[in-house]
Amino acid sequence: MTTGSMPRLPGKLHFVPRTRRGCWGPPQCLMIAYLESLDDEWTGHYDLAQRNCVHFSDWVARRLHLAALPDDLVGQAAEVMQTPVARLVLGTLHMVERLRGHATRL
Question: Which of 58, 56, 75, 76 is nearest to 67 (CA)?
């Protein structure tokens, strides 16, 4: 079994039910311009528990006036990060980042 991010066709994830976020009608070029305008709001800062890809997806859906992602999904990473194993792993990741000279927050 593989882990991590992998491409999947819509509706083909077996463990996540498909939910419709809604429809947005402007042309693709407007969507690309909109996404490029996100630079100010979504910089390179990444926080595994509070500012991850799920938070980004929820933010985009809300900005496009589509249905927000379910709260339990959006809060899942923060909940997992409270477990003892996750805190141990996160502490190790922070130490590695400090040793490498990066001040990023994981």
Answer: 58
